[in-house]
Amino acid sequence: MAQIPDPLMGDIWPTALPGMEEADYGSATLSPLGSFEIRSFQSFVLVYTVGEYGLDDTGSIKIVQRWTQDGGGYQFDDPKAMNYVTATASNGVPLQLYQEPHPHQRPWYNGLRITVSGGYLQPGETIRVVLGDQSGGSPGLRLQTFAEENYEFRVLADPCATCVFLPVSSPSITIAPGSVSSWVLTAPTLRRIGEPFDLGIRAEDHWGNAAAASDEPLFLRASPPVEGLPDNIRPATGARGTRVEGLIAREEGTYRFELQDSDGQTLARSNPLIVREGLLAAYWGDLHGQSGETVGINPIRHYMEFARDVAFLDVTSHQANDFQVTNAFWEQINQLTVEMDDPGRFTVFPGYEWSANTPLGGDHNVFFRHEGEQIHRSSHALLEDRSDLDTDARTLDDLFAKLDGRDCVLYAHIGGRPADISRAENAGLRRSVELHSDWGTFEWILHDAFDLGYRVGVVCNSDGHKGAPGACYPGASEFGAYSGLTCFRASELSRDAIFDAMRRRRHYGTTGSRMHIDLTAHMAKGSVCFPEDPRISAVPPVAARTAQMGDIVRSGSDTVQLDFAVSTHSPIERVDVLVGKEVLETLRPYTESDLGNRVRVIWQGAEYRGRGRQTYWQGQLITDLAQIQRMEKFNAWNHERPIRLEDPNRVTFEAVTTGNFGGVDLWLSEARTGSLTIASNIASQTVDLSKIGFEDHVIDAGKLDRKMRLFRLPERMEATDFSGRVTVPVDTIQGDVPVWLRITTEDGHRAWTSPIYFIPE
């Protein structure tokens, strides 16, 4: 795949140059070229040939890669260890090697600097760099965990020793997925009787990359049966995604699907599909990610095609950091969304990420209903063209003022720059806050909204940078979580219908699963529902006896009956009913008498709200009398941070959390005898096993909701459908009463509904 054209790239280079052409500063070649498997060990030889200006004493070259890459860090001291690098000059001049985590501006953040020391190089002389030099016993250079069609080794040169580095060339390779490790079977979540639907099939490698399937037959099974389901399918050779179209369910019910191989072994089970009469269906979206034109990888077209054809999303958008969006790229975004928006099949919104620093408001996603809108950037930090500098919106107040009355919706986002929603408010524009992305989980931003009296919904997205919207894994990088998804309840799959759902907060977010959630409040006579927030609209309310997630209502009494129904892909661990920031009640589809010899240990939380939020856990779980008969881990995304059952009395663990959680389940021989000792770098405690039961035993570790939790579970969990009714107090004398759900499944996934807001007179 060719490199992204310069006019579309959000990077800048020096304007003061010693010459006129890149060739004046040298050239570079790389060998071998071709395709190489993710996380494999390789050895590459890069030869830099000095250009017409020579390379002066203390002059340097740099080899830089995109910020996303999570391959091995270069080292120069141990010839037997991985990632060993050597460099030699053809004339024998000494060279000094340094690894630089930020050798250039975005997106060229990872790199190697090679400096001439005690001499110089003439034009035509060379520097030979061996990346992953295996001559001394090193296994080689360890490649990144994710596939990339055009992985560049961008070479920069400072021929005049001025510390001004100029691009020379960018030899590249392809980093390919590994072999098939698992399968994903995707179904819609909510459809009407007789409404056609599709299934999506994707193979993934060990690190979660969409892997090339073979043409071996696969077999689909449905329970109950559906019309049009083929007995078997053969994915096209090399296909990353296969769609099975035109299926119809003729009866109400909960449908589940299985994917099997030719031996009848189950490869994957789908999420549940609820089929019933109704006005609304469910459509899944990941509306937040970037491509190679800014700080991600691969072109934007590949990003959109992955969303539609591999992740099987219904809705998407592209959200580039605004200070990297050239005018040419903004035009391309608008052209591509027109081309790819396909009502009834795939909905695409033009948009961008307003990426101001946190003191000015922080990251916010902007989604336009239609193309042709003016982009209002937070700055022109990485843009040479200054002709439209006067269109910038430098603060959140400025942004709200420039977008006021425009046909758009905003979300507050927690990425590298956390949003500070207290800086400004416009309830007509900012409709939701993002609780989860690849960056982690951030319930605190919804709590902030409650404290400020805002009425916002809940969304989850990926903010993926790896070309995989809807299926982006964290790999071995600073990201700590798997992609989030948002489920929109809408009458149809179209821009108008999805925008209506966005504005009315008719959606819920998940950590990547596609569970079904119903939430209904039953209210007394005299209750009303507001079609729009009464603080921003004079549209009169309508009488209502029920309310759904996202609604703003005034209840006729101080209590309501809250009904919920959840259908999931994995057994349900708990359902929390929350009123504002507090848990009113926790419900489980099992009772205390069902508990067995299984103990769940969870680590969770973050350091603080900013960029360095990662908490790195390292420790042991030790039993004295009970023996560990079996261990299973969950949310252990980085395979190189091991969690191991070392012996019948000891588990060792390494993990990273970024506001989210991970952990292990332990099946113990004598689960109520003796103690369990947690010894870690973050929290330590010895706990009497007889006291670990139905409720969480919490070990607080300070910082941002950083803690460990222990509780007991049934040895086998099976309930994937769960419903209930809770009486909820909604006394609004002191202000709004937001009521919402948080669902946790056995495999570590979570979901959050948009609140129902009960408001005062």
Could you provide a short overview of the structure?
This protein has 761 residues and is mainly beta. The chain is globular, with a radius of gyration of 27 Å.
Chain-wise SSE layout:
Blueprint: E1 26-31, E2 35-37, E3 41-42, E4 44-50, E5 60-66, E6 85-89, E7 95-100, E8 108-116, E9 126-131, E10 141-142, E11 148-152, E12 154-158, E13 166-169, E14 172-176, E15 182-186, E16 190-191, E17 197-204, E18 210-211, E19 218-223, E20 232-233, E21 242-247, E22 253-260, E23 266-269, E24 273-275, E25 281-286, H1 300-309, E26 315-317, H2 327-340, E27 347-349, E28 351-355, E29 363-368, H3 396-403, E30 408-412, E31 430-437, E32 440-441, H4 443-452, E33 457-460, E34 485-490, H5 495-503, E35 507-510, E36 516-522, E37 528-530, E38 542-543, E39 546-548, E40 552-554, E41 559-567, E42 572-579, E43 582-587, E44 598-606, E45 615-623, E46 628-634, E47 643-647, E48 650-657, E49 661-668, E50 675-680, E51 684-688, E52 697-700, E53 704-713, E54 721-729, E55 737-745, E56 750-753, E57 756-758
Parallel strand pairs: 2-14, 16-24, 25-26, 26-27, 30-31, 31-33, 40-57
Antiparallel strand pairs: 1-4, 3-10, 4-9, 5-8, 5-12, 6-9, 7-8, 11-14, 12-13, 15-17, 17-18, 17-21, 19-20, 19-22, 22-23, 22-24, 25-34, 28-29, 29-30, 31-32, 34-35, 35-56, 36-39, 36-41, 37-38, 37-40, 41-54, 42-43, 42-55, 44-49, 44-53, 45-48, 45-50, 46-49, 47-48, 50-51, 52-53, 55-56, 55-57
Could you characterize the architecture of this molecule?
This protein is mainly beta. It has five domains: 171 residues, Immunoglobulin-like, CATH 2.60.40.1510; 97 residues, Immunoglobulin-like; 217 residues, Alpha-Beta Barrel (TIM Barrel), CATH 3.20.20.140; 114 residues, Immunoglobulin-like (Sandwich); 123 residues, Immunoglobulin-like, CATH 2.60.40. Helices cover 7% and strands 40% of the residues. It has five helices and 57 strands. Strands 25, 26, 27, 34, 35, 37, 38, 40, 42, 43, 55, 56 and 57 form a 13-stranded mixed sheet that branches. Strands 16, 19, 20, 22, 23 and 24 form a six-stranded mixed sheet that branches. Strands 28, 29, 30, 31, 32 and 33 form a six-stranded mixed sheet that branches. Strand 55 and strand 56 form a beta hairpin. The longest helix is centred in the middle third of the chain and has 14 residues. The protein is globular and about 90 Å long. 49% of the residues are buried. The mean pLDDT is 96.
